[in-house]
Design brief:
Largest sheet: none
Structural class: mainly alpha
Order of helices and strands: HHHHHHHHHHHH
Radius of gyration: 28 Å
Strand content: under 5%
Length: 297
Amino acid sequence: MSSLPLNASTPAPSPPASPPPAVEPTPGERSRLFRGQPGLILSWLVMAVVILWAVAPGLFTSYSGTDGIAGAQRLAPAAGHWLGTDQLGRDLYARIVYGAAWSLSGALVAVALGLAVGTALGVIAGAAGRGIDSLIMRFIDVLLAIPGLLLSLSIIILLGFGTVHAAIAVGITSIANFSRLARAEVVRVRHSEYVEAAYGSGGTFAAVLWRHILPNSLTSVIAFSALQFGNAILAISTLSFLGYGTPPPTPEWGLLIAEGRNYISTAWWLTTFPGLVVVLVVLSANRISHSFARSRR
């Protein structure tokens, strides 16, 4: 049996392989990356315009949102009044612009309430023990068992009419959805390897929750809040349409649609244009939410 020679030298280790050079995407890959972006850009543009309406309505119209013009009742859309006038001679475009502040502020209150309370309940349920988790989730199941519109109407009857109370009612109905999503994300992240390693290295429960679990589990919740923003606008407009929102002459979008339904056969623009604005804003919020969820994958 032959043996290796004593003077045989050990082969020198090969140098580490350098990372491969970056490959430029082909035109086909680049087109796939940007596929659907025009719709997303349009959605952001719609939301930007509506937010500017709410912040500075005087920059977009010279008419009042509540004062009518004598002799200008129910004028069809024309150069002087782009979207026509209502039954009291008020410019419809101006009322839509001034109504953005009421609709957006109500939706913002609703989303903030649902996001804060629902996320807190979901995080506690996902991070705590089985007893607290079971107790919180049974409460969430009760909220989910009640139809959202019925729960909103019940809360408004207790609190009273108005945009703020309608926003609170819509926010309470969204707590269950935020809670279930937050709990699912916390449970998923909690059983990850890096979280187990953080516990193994001596990390406390509060430190691991703050540094590792929350930052990696709230991304989906934030993306869902954009979707819920559009749903809140639709829900508040529905409550205003039914007469449970802000009373006239406030130019809230749902109230504009409700006021114009009595003239739909002679003045179709009174319901069509406010309804189109609501649809565009809701679709834009949904598109932005889907883009957030897709970028997370």
